[in-house]
Amino acid sequence: MSMNQSAQERTGRILSCIGGIYTVLSKSREIQCYAKGTFRHDGITPLAGDYVTFCLDQEPDQKRNADGYIKAVHPRKNALVRPPLANIDRLFLVATLHDPVYSPLALDKMIVLAVHNRMEPILILNKCDLTREPEVQAFFSVYKTVGCPIFTLSAILPDPEIQENIHALTKGVTSAFAGASGVGKSTIINALFPAFDCETGDLSTKTARGKHTTRQSRLFQLDETSYLADTPGFTLLDFERFFFISKEELPYSFPEFVPFLGQCKYTKCTHKTEDGCAILAAIRVGEVSASRHESYVSLLSEVSVHKPWEIIE
Ligand SMILES: Nc1nc2c(ncn2[C@@H]2O[C@H](COP(=O)(O)OP(=O)(O)O)[C@@H](O)[C@H]2O)c(=O)[nH]1
Ligand SMILES: [Mg+2]
Ligand SMILES: [Zn+2]
Predict the structure, then answer these.
(1) pTM of the model
(2) For residue 221, what are the CA distances in angstroms to 116, 189, 228?
(3) Which atom of ligand 1 is nearest to the CA of 188?
């Protein structure tokens, strides 16, 4: 490397990647970078959401249409495989009791995934205009023991106070929305962040044959310290591919189980049906919900089939 090629190192955050060119946000400026770091040897691919060290090229690379190159990817808090995103702090999980009917197992699996990957789960029960109050209460009583925030709302009849409370939870963090197709993710996001261009309905991401086109993931800066991930087709199916967690770790991803772990009669208790199980005792006194425990038992049989080498840290 000649003298005049030595470049000053800077840090920034990747907002998006299109055709191998990364848009890196650094001090309110968007810099186009290609990847050229030692991380390549480590098999790390830079992702939207990554904090990176980059260098500006002395002379912008006309051929590549880039201003500089990414030199290093900083350690991640977490990374999702699909959509490819790194460093998500909060995961808003949207569910509905009608159109579509939510699956407790699917929702509980998403909560496990969030907790296991150090994303704080926030539950949103949407389409409450289609739902009778006792059904909403039943949902609430199952999930209140989890200990995460729960919002019940109707995205087509926005309530300013609920909106404000959800909005406040996106401050100073990087958030993403997840949930089955049709639950109202885009409608909720559009109402909360009018500047964020998020189409309702998933039609535009499908081709005529009904296949999803590959859309790149993208981070949207809400304000200086707040980011929102654009996750158009982020449904449970996308989680399944990287649902790797050991059976020993699983109970720790049920936040309401944690205070009782270590209190069972048998140290190797799997909390299924054992005598003297503290989790089963907690269900009897209403501190853990039976439906959540049912999901735990189902997921335990699912994770037990993975061999240790399949576990991705
Ligand atoms: N009745 C009712 N319909 C809703 C509500 N929220 C969204 N929808 C409708 O549900 C459909 C799917 O919403 P969309 O935001 O595209 O869902 P997404 O696939 O999760 O992004 C659209 O036709 C919305 O108008 C709601 O609170 N109540
Ligand atoms: Mg959508
Ligand atoms: Zn137990």
Answers:
(1) 0.89
(2) 25, 14, 6
(3) 15
Please indicate whether residue 184, judged by its CB atom, sits closer than 6 Å to ligand 1: yes
CATH 2.40.50.140 domain extents, the chain: 3-75
* Ligand 1 atom at minimal distance to the Cα of residue 130: 1
The residue whose CA is least distant from atom 17 of ligand 1 is 184
Whether the Cβ atoms of residue 148 and residue 142 lie closer than 8 Å to each other: no
- Check residue 239 and give its pLDDT: 60
Residue 232: predicted pLDDT? 59
pLDDT value at residue 303: 82
Please, what is the Cα angle at 242 between 89 and 114, to 5 degrees? 25
List the CATH code of the domain at 3-75: 2.40.50.140
Residue 159, ligand 1, Cβ within 6 A: no
By the 10 Å C-beta count (0-12 exposed, 13-18 middle, 19+ buried), 201 is classed as exposed
Q: What is the mean pLDDT of each run of 10 residues along the chain (313 residues)?
A: 61 93 95 86 89 89 83 92 88 95 93 92 97 96 96 94 97 94 90 75 42 65 92 60 77 97 97 98 97 96 66 41
What is the number of the ligand 1 atom nearest to the C-alpha of 181?
A: 19
Is residue 102 within 8 A of residue 95, CB to CB? The reply is: yes
Distance 206 CA to ligand 2 centre (A): 11
Give the pLDDT confidence score for residue 212 in this predicted structure.
43
**By alpha-carbon position, which residue is closest to atom 7 of ligand 1?**
184
The fold of the 250-310 domain, in CATH, is Ribonucleotide Reductase Protein R1; domain 1 (1.10.40)
155 lines ligand 1 (CB under 6 A): yes
Q: What is the per-residue pLDDT for 65?
A: 81
